[in-house]
């Protein structure tokens, strides 16, 4: 049990800026095995976002509450996945071949594709959450709690199904480049799917369909352009899947 707790804190420390106990050891091998808890990290991030929104909306209009809650979650994660999304936009948008795409994605500077992609992603998520707020504040809170774990499950599924394509030791996500065991994948699936129970049946189904479709499309693009995934690809998949979850919930309202 202690080992499992250590793995969770390893995942939490890697994917967020939140403090973890000093007694938790770190190693690439532990991070490798911590993949089962990536969706559980989404529980923490989603809860932070939901609590922030509920607190802010008591004093401010929903749009400002949404933006501030997004800022809180970005601060909590260190913009980890947003950075991956921007790098993936730059590489896939500006690169002509596999090597050029990987080189661009490795560059710490952000280009025009990354800037436009990041701005549009943040605006789209904010707009979707504001639309959810029009139906009630709890819709926003529940959507955040469901979307963050589910989107991290989407990224985790790519670790399990695709090949890692970087071979340089400086790659931050190289320790994750191992397929999950059946048990590890099952644990990740439970943590990623369980929060969907908080949504109405139609909302949960639509969100799941949207996330699966987005993940499959992302996997197809990554394999076609790169032959597999990188850490930036995982961040991009998380961001795209998070947005897809919100859009799925909104789409479901047309049938409720």
Automatic annotation (TrEMBL):
It comes from Aromatoleum buckelii. HAMAP family: CobS. One of its GO terms (molecular function) is adenosylcobinamide-GDP ribazoletransferase activity. It catalyses: alpha-ribazole 5'-phosphate + adenosylcob(III)inamide-GDP = adenosylcob(III)alamin 5'-phosphate + GMP + H(+); alpha-ribazole + adenosylcob(III)inamide-GDP = adenosylcob(III)alamin + GMP + H(+). Its cofactor is Mg(2+). This is Adenosylcobinamide-GDP ribazoletransferase. Pathway: Cofactor biosynthesis; adenosylcobalamin biosynthesis; adenosylcobalamin from cob(II)yrinate a,c-diamide: step 7/7. Its EC number is 2.7.8.26. Pfam families: CobS. Keywords: Cell membrane, Cobalamin biosynthesis, Magnesium, Membrane, Transferase, Transmembrane, Transmembrane helix. Joins adenosylcobinamide-GDP and alpha-ribazole to generate adenosylcobalamin (Ado-cobalamin). Also synthesizes adenosylcobalamin 5'-phosphate from adenosylcobinamide-GDP and alpha-ribazole 5'-phosphate. Belongs to the CobS family. The gene is cobS.
């Amino acid at each position: 049990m202690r080992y499992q707790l250590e793995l969770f804190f390893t995942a939490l420390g890697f994917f967020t800026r939140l403090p973890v106990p000093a007694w938790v050891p770190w190693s690439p091998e532990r991070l490798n095995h911590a993949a089962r808890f990536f969706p559980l990290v989404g529980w923490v991030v989603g809860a932070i976002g939901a609590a922030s929104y509920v607190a802010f909306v008591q004093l401010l209009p929903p749009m400002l509450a949404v933006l501030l809650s997004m800022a809180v979650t970005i601060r909590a994660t260190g913009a980890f996945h947003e950075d991956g999304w921007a790098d993936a936009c730059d590489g896939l948008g500006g690169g002509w071949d596999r090597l050029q795409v990987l080189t661009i994605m490795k560059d710490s500077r952000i280009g025009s594709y990354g800037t436009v992609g990041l701005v549009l992603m943040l605006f789209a998520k904010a707009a979707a959450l504001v639309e959810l707020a029009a139906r009630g504040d709890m819709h926003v809170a529940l959507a955040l709690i469901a979307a963050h774990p589910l989107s991290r499950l989407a990224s985790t599924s790519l670790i399990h199904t695709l090949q890692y394509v970087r071979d340089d030791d400086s790659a931050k996500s190289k320790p994750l480049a191992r397929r999950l065991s059946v048990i590890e994948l099952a644990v990740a699936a439970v943590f990623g799917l369980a929060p969907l129970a908080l949504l109405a049946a139609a909302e949960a189904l639509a969100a799941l369909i949207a996330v699966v479709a987005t993940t499959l499309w992302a996997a197809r693009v990554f394999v076609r352009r790169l032959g597999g995934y990188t850490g930036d690809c995982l961040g991009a998949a998380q961001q795209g899947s998070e947005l897809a979850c919100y859009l799925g919930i909104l789409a479901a309202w047309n049938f409720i």
